Predict the 3D structure of the following.
Amino acid sequence: MRIGDVSKKYDISTSAVRYYEKVGLIQSRRLLSNGYRDYSEDMARRIQFIQNAQSVGFSLDNIKDILNIGEQNEASCCDSVRALLHGKISEVEQQINQLKSMKKYLQQIESVWATQKNSVDNGLCNLLLALDKSE
């Protein structure tokens, strides 16, 4: 399967396919006469695997680790995926908590600013100049 076919089949840019190859996530076979990249069905499926893994938040480094584990020990591959997913869930929960704190802080600023008059000093809004970072 040529790179253009893979690109169309999985709705991925040819540059992304080349990048996956460059970083070692996939390998191509080169056709002897014209030098075009040729991908086996296994490599095409691997691209789908990479896209699915990215859709749940795994980084390319995570994906590379999963692929390496799968090649070395198929039995522990899914356990590794589960462990990574558990870590990703914890990461997302932490981000949610940080965003909730940020929202609360922004709402406090908004209520303080509601009582302040607008003024500009040398093109700088007084609201941001008066912002106390220790709050």
The first strand starts at residue 29 and ends at 30. Helices lie at 3-10, 14-22, 41-55, 60-72, 74-113, 126-129. Residues 25 and 51 are 12 Å apart (CA to CA).
